[in-house]
Design goal:
alpha+beta, four-stranded antiparallel β-sheet
Length: 87
């Protein structure tokens, strides 16, 4: 897991005109700027040791982005290493 056992994951949703704005916030390991640029690419996995310790194919965020785009939405991320992320 990228969020430690004692960490938090928060999901917020709010209406924005004819759309819904959804935020997923965590208190996990965070993502450096270089990796943020490739975050939604298929099969991308960071070289950070904390990421490599986890199992995965690097497809989850890519598939999320595709689904959001297919529904006419946008997806993005903001993160600080050591402080978590907001999607």
């Amino acid at each position: 897991m990228y969020t430690p056992e004692a960490g938090e994951i928060t999901i917020l949703a709010s209406p924005e005109q004819d759309e819904i704005y959804i935020q997923v916030k965590d208190t996990g390991i965070g993502i450096n700027l270089e990796d943020q640029a490739r975050l939604f690419s298929p099969f991308f996995r960071s070289d950070e040791p904390a990421v490599r310790d986890q199992h995965g194919w690097g497809l989850s965020l890519h598939l999320c982005a595709r689904l959001v785009q297919m529904m006419g939405g946008e997806i993005g991320a903001d993160s600080t290493p050591g402080s978590g992320s907001v999607f």
